[in-house]
Specification:
The chain has about 400 residues and is α+β, with helices and mostly antiparallel strands. It is about 40% helix and about 20% strand. The chain contains 14 helices and 15 strands. The chain is globular, with a radius of gyration of 24 Å.
Length: about 400
């Protein structure tokens, strides 16, 4: 995959590039050296991953190998009978235990979650304690750990960390796609790539791989190509890699725009044929990189889709309503939009400005939400004229300030 891909068409504005006043990275004409220095190489990413994964302890054991307990600190835990060590389940592990026990995942999580205060100056309405942990223990004993309902001797996969965290409770048919294997493969398929916005932990990886000039043929522009990749060994997300484009703004960083194309989605279940999976991933990447130029063109075309006579607040409210965005996230998106106004002026009143506001907000989110908002930016960039008109029409229906406030969480 070291050959150049793409049609090499010039994209973006003619003339000077925003990075012309900066020292550029040797292998990435769209990335200033300042930003490239914030990225890490594949080798650095692999070192980071290996250090993180040193905490992992996996067990293939039946439920009967554990007792449910309430610890001295008043927390629900699974105690491994052979060692006496307690493992405190994460919210993800609790959800898996609830699903396996065919009961309410919400209830399991709720009994471990402190109740946030609703009054001014009230941090918590109340904190969960040993009595809640005891109730959760009884429910787990009655559901998943009930030998009359579920086989207690069936082997399962328990992912734990050495610090006593229970990360996942998985089926014996669950197949782990190893993060190190995936990152080594990406290193081979995208030689010279840089890892940017690299997030995750010992169990899951999320990030972007900047495509070097040696692979992607393109003349200078304010946009570059990357792949948005991810994988979770414990079922938080499927293995994926999607084509993306980034918009370089200034030495402070970049804003990532998701341009959704074909994606590899590997389900972690059953026997894994790694040779076949490697071929699938390689074929997908080779198909997707040439789409990046098209993605840039598509993104730039959104500048012509203006808000017209619909106010900014109405368009934000319509976005919140149409795409089910929470009020807390809309506060972040509104702040992102205000930044775009500072950059683009009145041109921010467009689909282009809205997309940038969404993806700017995503950089401040946790990995799952970050990926979701990048994908929302991609969906917005792919809207048809009719879909854009429908979004504007929805915005016009918000004529009451209180209705807008309810959706975007700001005094407008």
């Amino acid at each position: 995959m070291s050959e150049q891909l793409g049609n090499g068409a010039k994209v973006g504005e003619v003339g000077s590039h925003f990075t012309d006043s900066q020292v550029k990275s040797n292998d990435f004409r769209n990335v200033s050296k300042i930003w490239a220095d914030k990225c890490i190489s594949f080798d650095e990413g692999l070192d980071k991953l290996n250090n993180e994964q040193a905490v992992i302890e996996d067990f293939r054991e039946p439920l009967s190998a554990f007792d449910t307990v309430v610890t001295d600190k008043g927390q629900f835990a699974l105690r491994k009978k052979s060692t006496g060590k307690d493992y405190i389940p994460t919210p993800h592990a609790l959800r898996q235990m609830a699903v396996a026990g065919q009961t309410s995942a919400w209830m399991f999580e709720d009994l471990c979650t402190d109740k946030v205060g609703t009054k001014k100056g009230e941090e918590f309405k109340y904190r969960r304690d040993a009595s809640d942990a005891g109730l959760l223990k009884r429910i787990v004993d009655h559901t998943l750990f009930n030998g009359n309902r579920f086989d207690q001797d069936k082997t399962r996969l328990f992912r734990t960390w050495k610090n006593g965290s229970l990360r996942a409770v998985l089926s014996d048919k669950y197949a782990i796609v190893n993060n190190e294997w995936y990152l080594e493969l990406l290193k081979k398929l995208v030689p010279g790539g840089l890892l940017s916005h690299w997030r995750g932990d010992a169990d899951s990886l999320y990030g972007n791989i900047l495509i070097p000039d040696s692979i992607r043929q393109e003349t200078d522009s304010a946009y570059g190509g990357m792949l948005s990749v991810g994988n979770s060994e414990i079922g938080l997300r499927r293995l994926s890699n999607m084509p993306s484009v980034f918009r370089a703004i200034c030495m402070n960083g970049c804003i990532w725009e998701q341009e959704s194309g074909k994606n590899v989605r590997q389900v972690h279940r059953g026997e894994l044929n790694l040779d076949q999976l490697e071929y699938t991933i390689k074929s997908n990447i080779q198909r997707q990189i040439p789409l990046l130029n098209k993605g840039i063109d598509t993104l730039l075309d959104t500048r012509t889709r203006t808000f017209g006579d619909v106010s900014v607040d109405q368009m934000l409210a319509a976005t919140a309503k149409q795409y089910k965005v929470s009020r807390a996230d809309m506060v972040g998106i509104r702040k992102g939009f205000d930044v775009e106004v500072g950059i683009l002026g009145t041109d921010a009143r467009s689909s282009f400005g809205l997309i940038n506001a969404v993806t700017r907000h995503s950089q401040n989110c946790e990995p799952d939400s970050w990926v979701s908002f990048d994908q929302l930016g991609g969906r917005l960039s792919q809207q048809s004229e009719k879909q854009w008109s429908n979004l504007k029409a929805l915005g016009k229906t918000f004529t009451e300030t209180k209705d807008v406030e309810k959706l975007i969480g700001l005094n407008v």
